[in-house]
Write a structure and sequence with these properties.
The structure holds two protein chains of two kinds. By secondary structure, chain A is mainly β. Helices cover 0% and strands 59% of the residues of chain A. Classes of the chains: A mainly beta, B mainly beta.
Chain lengths: 111, 113
């Protein structure tokens, strides 16, 4: 069965520091993978998606993620954190008729 | 292009009542998905509608039901409300039947007292 695991329910970084949010997937077939962001009291916004076209995927707001089949990972990174990046981030894998989400990682950014 | 819209923003009901939540997908999208985001339980798939038909449902009891209208908007009904139904209910739409890229609305916060 396909699933995703997010390591670390909370991540704290200083403004300007590297952001690294971890996601590992389990899939018997090439997966479609996604990162979503949820700001307080809002819905989910799609950050980026991987659909096998390129292993390094660039998304909105300066985020990117690299698909590594050998490590079954799809970690999300941003070179320099901004205060406005504070939110909850969800990794998800697409099965034919639904998204399966990880448990989420709350990112805190300190000045 | 207008995004996915949901109404109401907040809904307060008492245990045993019925709740109706509404969703309008992005124009041109035929698939609508419902998810429940309950505290401590994460995001759980509820229902998928496409072309007016229920295509799949998650592991929820039958008192969670819904429908999709000819204009592709959708309703989620929750009967015999229980306290643990309190959650954020998110609707998403997709241009292709079968998931893949989904666009989410802002959600309806349902509180059951």
């Amino acid at each position: 069965a396909q699933s995703v695991t997010q390591l670390g329910s909370h991540v704290s970084v200083s403004e300007g520091a590297l952001v690294l949010l971890r996601c590992n997937y389990s899939s018997s077939v090439p997966p479609y993978l996604f990162w979503y962001v949820q700001y307080p009291n809002q819905g989910l916004q799609l950050l980026l998606k991987y659909t096998s076209a390129a292993t390094l995927v660039k998304g909105i707001n300066g985020f990117e993620a690299e698909f590594k089949k050998s490590e079954t990972s799809f970690h999300l990174t941003k070179p320099s954190a901004h205060m406005s990046d504070a939110a909850e981030y969800f990794c998800a894998v697409s099965i034919t008729d639904k998204l399966i989400f990880g448990t989420g990682t709350r990112l805190q950014v300190f000045p | 292009e207008a995004g996915v819209t949901q109404s109401p923003t907040h809904l307060i009901k008492t245990r045993g009542q019925q709740a109706t939540l509404r969703c309008s997908p992005i124009s041109g999208h035929t698939s609508v998905y419902w998810y429940q985001q309950a505290l401590g339980l994460g995001l759980q798939f509820l229902l998928w509608y496409d072309e007016g038909e229920e295509r799949n449902r998650g592991n929820f009891p039958p008192r969670f039901s819904g429908r999709q209208f000819p204009n592709y908007s959708s309703e989620l009904n929750v009967n015999a409300l229980e306290l643990e139904d309190s959650a954020l209910y998110l609707c998403a739409s997709s241009p292709l039947a079968g998931g893949d890229e989904q666009y989410f609305g802002p959600g309806t916060r349902l509180t059951v007292t």
